[in-house]
């Protein structure tokens, strides 16, 4: 776990039990591995990190994600589950931030990912993030192969 986390520039965030996720510059581990492999071959990294923020303020337990087709909504939503799962099993969370001793270059804590007792998932999306494929495109490709 530690070696994998180190490869992905992973950090261990602060953990509580208030339902808060606040993590800057998260990189999905599948994309981080692909980026790492590409960087070894071409010296370029082209994964765009995202900031994850789910506040537990005032009992708010709703997250709304909207945007255009292919805009990263599904990847962002899945990222919350991936971050919570990585944290739950002790895998350092991948980031593009410059982190030193759990803090960024400005001294701000690397992030916070609270412990969630349950992580519930409905799987059925055939999106392939390694190909940059949106959920809609994955479904269209699947239907095309059926037809």
Features:
single chain; three-stranded antiparallel beta sheet; 5 strands; 33% helix
Description:
This protein is of the alpha+beta class. Helix content is 33%, strand content 12%. It has a three-stranded antiparallel beta sheet with strand order 2-1-5, with helices on one face. Strands 3-4 form a two-stranded antiparallel ribbon. A hairpin with a 2-residue loop joins β3 (99-100) and β4 (103-104). The longest helix is centred in the middle third of the chain and has 16 residues, at 73-88. It is globular and about 50 Å long. It starts with a helix and ends with a helix. The model has no long low-confidence stretch (mean pLDDT 74).
Residue fraction in strands: 5-15%
Number of strands: 5
Could you name the ranges where pLDDT drops below 50 across 5 or more consecutive residues? none
Helical residue percent? 25-40%
**Radius of gyration computed on alpha carbons:** 16 Å
Whole-number mean pLDDT? 74
- Spatially, the strands of the biggest sheet line up as 2-1-5
**Shape category:** globular
Kindly, what is the distance between the CA atoms of the first and last residues, rounded to a whole number of angstroms?
A: 43 Å
Largest sheet: 3 strands, antiparallel
